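FAQ: What does a multi-protein file look like?

Like this. Sequence, then tokens, then the next protein.
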Amino acid sequence: MRPAAASSFADPHDSGAAFAPGLLRAHRLFESSDLDDARERISRVMQPHRLQALERPRGGRSHMDFVRVGGIGVGTIRFGETTRVDVSPVEDYHLLMFCLQGHAEVLADDQPLQADGRHGMVCAPGSRFLADLSPDCEQFVLRLDRRMLESHTGRPLRFEAGLDLQRPALQAWRAQLHLLLSSEALMRAVQASPIVAAEMERLLVHLLLAGQPWTDDVPLRIAARPAGTGAGASQAACVRRAVAHMESHADEPLRLADIAAAAGVSVRTLLDAFRRVRDESPMQTLRDLRLERARQRLRTGEDGITVAIAALDCGFAHLGRFAQAYRARFGESPSDTLRAAG
């Protein structure tokens, strides 16, 4: 093990001050001394993944802080143990990570990288993220929704995997991120106003694009051939197979890898095909399919049906997120739909 590296993600106006995201501490999602419990809770925010203790447990506690700013999720994660994190593959977002404390040995986009307070990584959708974390490691993570990023760039992109926090071109992004996480007034404004949140999202994205090298995502350029011939027809068939599998197994805890296997393609190919054919991710398609089924059940008003039963039977394990997604899609709450049916 290398010695823990102190974080250099400092206030750009005070080079001696270590970055401490104090405002995130007010958004603590959980604390736990059980690694399986931590994995399950983190999966609700990020995605299903594997956690493995690499040494004899020391009795450390896990925690996660998390807040959303438009299409960007900002958070910290700590396990308090020497832990391996295996996300295979990253689903429909770009994962940016470095360490506030400690260090990690990382595999991202098939590249071995070191993560500490001065260096991190950006992992693309469809790629594997594997990290061995030191027991004192606290990760700082950004979850950048793929579709949100493409709305700003107008095309698919892929960041350079290695993140050098000392890069001069990244200092404006660092300064803005530090301001967001240290100004209570600014954070309140972002949370109170969707317009302010959208503007903050736009600013953080464009500062990152200006500071971190990136290229067009080559597989997507190849995929954008006319539909009906060559790759276009193959992608349409891939999507049909995937959707048919989702429809048959919508009530099961499907993973992206399960859907790709059923379609007979790799996860990256599946993601590319859905972007080209449907302009959304497979998991968005699955969520919408489940929402439609839940709405059908609620509208029938069948005996004994409740919102919780409809949600669980249609594959939603978290009732709060189900209700939020339902209202966003249909313009009413699930309980409103159920009352109208009665």
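And here is the next protein:
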Amino acid sequence: MSRAATMLIVEDEPETASLLETYFRAHGYQVFTAASGEEALSMAQAHPIDLIVLDIRLPDIDGFEVFRQLRAHRRTREIPVIFLTEKRERESRLTGLEMGAHDYIPKPFSLQELRARVQNILRRSRAEPAIDGLTGLPGRPLILDYLKEQLGRSDWGALLIGLQGLEAFGERYGFVARDDAIRAVGLLLTGINHESGDAFFLGHLGEGWFILIGSRHQVSAVAPQAIARLKSALPYFYPLQDMEEKPPDLPILRIAAAQAHGTEGPFPDPEAVIRRLLERREALSG
């Protein structure tokens, strides 16, 4: 690295903010801290920030609004963001990830785990920002570019497919197991695409959500196959002992999917297609 990575920690609890600042400074990072959303936005504009650790609960505007405003400005829209959430705030975590945050970590958290996530995200963003570092598939920027090319046509289709229940799964087995499950889904979908003669554009929106884009007929035909293949793979994501014993608190992973087609348009922009898919997705039983 030509310079130390620079972090912005947005946290209104002084003890937590001081702990994170001290810890990451000791590991060679340049660290700024902000105790409110407005202060965080000012700092992000004033300094070259490589990554933001952003608490959702802030005294002025919440972390979601901070994230929206960061994404609205050219200087700050590409900064990776990790949300800090309360462990019970499942909906908050899902909202953050759907908005395009790179990761979340629930409180209380392990400093070592947070540092590992920070390192992974920085490595991905500095290497190939358009390619997802976990799966090696096109990430959100390339997905949006490809969708934009399709919007003038009516015969395209898009399949959103992925895993529901990853947050509980990750809390029980750790973020490495969670990432392994996401990577496995990407590999399975890549295999299906190869079997189809690479007829689809396949991208990774983030976390456990993937998108296949092709002709409407092709997408409708491949959807049942992709769903069935992923369902059959789900048991292999778990430790063998848990699959055999099935403890009552076993976190349940489910396949969820949704489709959108060009005939439903016009869509004003590619983000509108993504929103439609996310609104429609349904977990599939079995």
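Q: Is there any per-entry metadata?
A: Some entries carry free-text notes. For the entry above: Residues 140-284 form a domain with the Alpha-Beta Plaits fold (CATH 3.30.70.270).
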